[in-house]
Amino acid sequence: MVSTRRRTDATRRQALAGLTGMAGSLLMPAWAQPVPQGEDKTAPPPQVGSLLPLPELTLLDGTRFHAADADGHVLVLYWWASWCPFCAQQSPWMDKFWLAHKARGLLMLGLSIDRKAEDASTYLSKKGYTFPAGLVTPTVARVLPKPKGLPVTVVRGRDGRVLAAETGQLFPEDVEQFARFL
Length: 182
Description:
The protein is of the alpha/beta class. 36% of the residues lie in helices and 16% in strands. A 5-stranded mixed β-sheet has the order 5-4-3-6-7, covered by helices on one side. A two-stranded antiparallel sheet has the order 1-2.
């Protein structure tokens, strides 16, 4: 039964990946798609096991994220955008995961690739999301380049090494699997 579910999940992800590309091309011609601040279109996701440096940044709520605060904690990094339909599907699950596990020491950092901080802030407020989020600026991108694709979810372990790196929309059961790293 488990192997059938894994095949089903893998098949579902493959189908979604195909639809993601197709939907993106239908929604907007490639030349017209926005190029988010600091996005390196050739950056691969970080390799599992690699050290992942973190930037210092001001969050959308005006507080600061200090890289040193993540030492000894599991940190979920989540690249998203207010205009991304796949992020719109995944973001509620990310917020729910954050709320369910922050008492256990989980840290989360949403990284919006919106061009304007106001767009990202308004979106978070309108949806009622509470996960900490900042804007990917050129300064942030120099330390932590955005991998190709959207949404992108990376789990950084207590030792600063990548435990998981996923590109594309995740489903609730995929997001919940990150709890095993806590």
